[in-house]
Description:
Layout: H1 3-29, H2 38-43, H3 48-55, H4 76-101
Helix pairs in contact: 1-4, 3-4
Amino acid sequence: MPMKRxxxxxxxxxxxxxxxxxxxxxxxxxxxxxxxxLLEGLGITALLVPYGLHWLGLPVLMNDGLTxxxxxxxxxxxxxxSVVAWLSLHLLIAIxxxxxxxxxx
Length: 105
């Protein structure tokens, strides 16, 4: 197998591992069993991107972020941008980890 193809395959596996781990942590954080723990805090990371983009002025929250009772939920555009941003970040992490773990060339 050529070196370039092997490298891309390793990046894909690392990306899949980091992405699936993050998704599992988000799903586990939604369980009431983990309320008030660090795991619940990790589950909120899915909301970081829409709230950051809302702060920059993009319309990514329901009712323009005005709820009167708590945190506004992201709209579909906000969720889409959140997924794209997190998967991109996981890809950058996978590329970095692959470079760190690859042997000397």
